[in-house]
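Response to reviewer comment R2.3. The reviewers asked that we include at least one raw input/output pair. We reproduce the pair for Alcohol dehydrogenase here without editing.
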Amino acid sequence: MGPQEKSSQDKRLTPSNQIILGGVQRAGQRLRMEEVMVASPGAFQVRLKIVCSSLCHSDVTFWHLPALFPMIFGHEAFGVVESVGEGVEEVSPGDLVVPSFLGNCGDCTECRSERTNLCDGAAIHNFLGVSSFAEYTVVDVSQVTLVDPAIPPEKACLLSCGVSTGVGAAWKVAAVEQGSSVAVFGLGPWVVEGARLRGASTIIGIDLNPEKLDIGKKLGLTDFINPKDIGDRPLSEVIVEMTDGGADYCFECIGLASLVSEAFASSRKGWGKTIILGVEMRGEPFSISSAEIMQGKTVTGSVFGGIKAKRDIPILVKQYLDKELRLDEFITHELGFQDINKAFDLLVQGKSIRCIVWMDR
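Raw output as returned:
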């Protein structure tokens, strides 16, 4: 079934049908193809036929962590609604959607508030609520967003997590201002793109991988720092000097407590804002100077870039179709589903920004 086709009742899966998936039995194990039975959607659930997925750093992070196994990974995807459960009214079979790990039920206190994009209305049943490394998956209706069919599947797929998280952090969480200075620790290209869209005049990328310089410059990076190249000088000292007092906005995209502290020290006194996107990979706390907090600096966390999926993803789709938001540059590789492990290798080796995994290739 192609991405534009409607599902017909007689072609729908039954609970006894088997699907192919890419899953693991234990942490760090190579993904393997297996057949499993897929359940019918329950009340307020949607079953999707996955057209394509892209590999996110979160997949790699959780792949190495102890968890409930066996597990089907994948959460950044584009799919077609195959069937719906009781009570589902906002989508129908044949609709084109992107799933998101963060629900947006629209009814809970958090969804009705502009203060947060968190949602208490959906339960997590599989990997980040999606598990898209499979031909079909069942998700809560609060986790699917209708998209304009004019956007290509591989571009829409990116909005399911990475782009929304990075662009949203600059747009929704930081509210980067025109002419401001931005420092991105662990060069997240999505944050760079968001800062560019918001009109930042200085965008500094900090990363140990020199290969990220070229893609960063294509997206609007004005400066690049490899910490290996500055000798014994504190990184924060270099950034404060480059920005004549500190960056207006600092984004930590890796998930290291030490880097959060460095980002905070690099922000400007008076109004500098540090936004944490990365989940601390070792579970360690971070410490910041209380004196600097008293001087007006702030630090805040960001989940999914502050994006409310059902409202904001269609805005990002329109920005792409209007040639404002760039997505094409982020796709560096495309592979068939059988080569899913190669996609992991490319990301782990730092050779890929986004690898699209097509289910039918």
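The radius of gyration is 21 Å. Residues 46 and 139 are 5 Å apart (CA to CA). Further pairs are available on request from the corresponding author.
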